Amino acid sequence: xxxxxxxxxxxxxxxxxxxxxxxxxxxxxxxxxxxxxxxxxxxxxxxxxxxxxxxxxxxxxxxxxxxxxxxxxxxxxxxxxxxxxxxxxxxxxxxxxxxxxxxxxxxxxxxxxxxxxxxxxxxxxxxxxxxxxxxxxxxxxxxxxxxxxxxxxxxxxxxxxxxxxxxxxxxxxxxxxxxxxxxxxxxxxxxxxxxxxxxxxxxxxxxxxxxxxxxxxx
Length: 218
Known about the structure:
The chain is an alpha/beta fold. The chain folds into 2 domains: 3-77, no CATH class; 91-217, Aspartate Aminotransferase, domain 2 (3-Layer(aba) Sandwich), CATH 3.40.640. The protein has helices at residues 3-6, 9-15, 42-49, 64-77, 91-102, 117-129, 142-148, 172-182, 194-197, and strands spanning 108-112, 133-137, 154-160, 185-189, 207-209. Helix 8 (172-182) links the parallel strand 3 (154-160) and strand 4 (185-189). Helix 2 (9-15) runs antiparallel to helix 4 and helix 5 runs parallel beside helix 6 (117-129). It is globular. The chain starts with a helix and ends in a 9-residue tail after the last strand.
């Protein structure tokens, strides 16, 4: 879309990912509280049911305000390439959703020792109960990550950049290269950096998570 060439990060943080023509011509996206949505006619309903049209159907599955936030986050994370975002109830909700989706029983996950304590706690307790094993390696050490890989079992590498609380910075390109070689997904918690300071997707990282109530919220 050329967003990065046309506007700066301050403008993108307010307007990226949205159509210029907004609902009711509002300057900012309105907060939509509706639970149900109508279809213009049967043809529109059929297009929605067949997957040819993406739009709101019921509040439980999303609404225009949430969609606008997701579009903006995706645009901030990847201004020059296609990306998608999913807005969750909390940062831990986002982390646990990804891990539960990617780590079946019998699989293995690698995470770093310097990082958010609740992330490590979830891996060591809840995932362990589901039959998922893990390895904890030194933060900012790609060689340690490579050494911890269990061929055929390791499905995900989880770390933070910068780490919480010691602000260590890992070589994202190196981690992405290692993961790609072994066909392993990568998940980076970039809460402390935000897309203003770092875009992990540009280094080959697969998934980026933010706790939006922190630095991203100003």
